[in-house]
Design goal:
- It is a single chain.
- The protein is of the alpha+beta class.
- It is built from five helices and 23 strands.
- The strands form five sheets. Strands 1, 2, 3, 5 and 8 form a five-stranded mixed β-sheet that branches. The chain has a five-stranded mixed β-sheet with strand order 4-10-9-6-7, with no helix packed on it. A five-stranded mixed β-sheet has the order 11-15-21-18-19, with no helix packed on it.
- The mean pLDDT is about 90.
Length: about 425
Amino acid sequence: MYADGALSAQYDDALDPWLVTDWSHQSAFTSFHTELTLPPPPMDTILLNGTGTYNCTSWSQKNPNEPCPKTPGIFNAFFIKGHRYLVRLINTSAASTFVFSVDKHVLKYTDTVFVGIGQRYHVVIEANPADELTPIEDRNYWIRATPAVGCNPSLAYANETVGVIRYSTKSKKTPTTAPYLFNSTCQDEPYPSLVPVVQKTVGQAKNPFETTDDYLAGLWTTGNESTIPNNNFTRWSFTEHTMYLNFSDPSINHLRDKTWSAEKALIFENYGPDDWVYLIIEGTPAQGRAKNKTFLPIVHPIHLHGHDFFLLAQQYQPFNLTHVNNSSIFHFNNPPRRDVALLPVGGYIAIAFKTDNPGIWILHCHIAWHASAGLALQIFERQPDVIKQSQQLGWADQTNKVCANWTRWLDNPKNWFDSVAFQEDSGI
């Protein structure tokens, strides 16, 4: 998700992007296996632009025979009083949502910004700290990425103070500033904070979204007919089957297919370039709709490839068709435009986009372990046009070349990281 409203505001300096992320000292493969068999893997700490701190006391308790890892030091930004700084804020986490803030500074009309996984914001920080009478060498302020309560796995040794803003290049003092008081409950930024500068209105849906494009995010109950390796693993799904795309048989090899196996989790949206499609994604459905699924109180950041979508509704209650005509629930006049939105616990999101970009697009949860465990679906948009483009651009030759290279690599067992089941990932 990105929000460009700040670009219409006044600022003096545009800074390089600030990337906030959770961090684990174990590999992604190990963390994914933990997710597949046990509760979510804990993350160890939080980084800003690749730097951060770590609790060596906790490390020594867990690893008594190993030295504590060295850290590269904490992130520093140097401000000039009175300047307005444009910050491009990006959450690149595997599993964590944060509340971003800077002690004693205003983020252009607000004190904090909720940033979900994959979301991006442009924010303007005004360099007018609230304690301007303090000597310049003592003007040092914590940059904070506070884990949102209810969004995150265990952050075992997390420190929310991820960086420092300084007003003197000579100062090396540790800030003593206190955070703002704010609600850190897991949630997206509210609608009034996300009003697009360029106004657009959503048209009526061409697809029968009430009956065919309503999807449930839940733990999937494996059937005996499944061909997925290690059926005892925990899997997620939007459709009636968890997504599993074979690395050796990508969807681009099946552009002319009219029917697809359930594990491909593929839906067709074959409409015109000016037609609108609505999708409903639910976290907890109305009673009686939960087939082969278990629903957990988890906030899922939902990401769509190929489009910026219009966020029609974001509710903490199960979807009901009557909501569509309720103007306090569904918003068609200039709603927020995003490509990642948080799916609330017990509720749903309704998104809309024009079918103006032919292709096979993935919609998935942006929690890395959930995406790898199948919480995704494919949207085949305007199949006839995709086939036509593939012929005009000669996709087949390049696809065959890449697949031939892959097959040669795969045929050598020494390249396998698991001798029993080569692919446990969903394929995305």
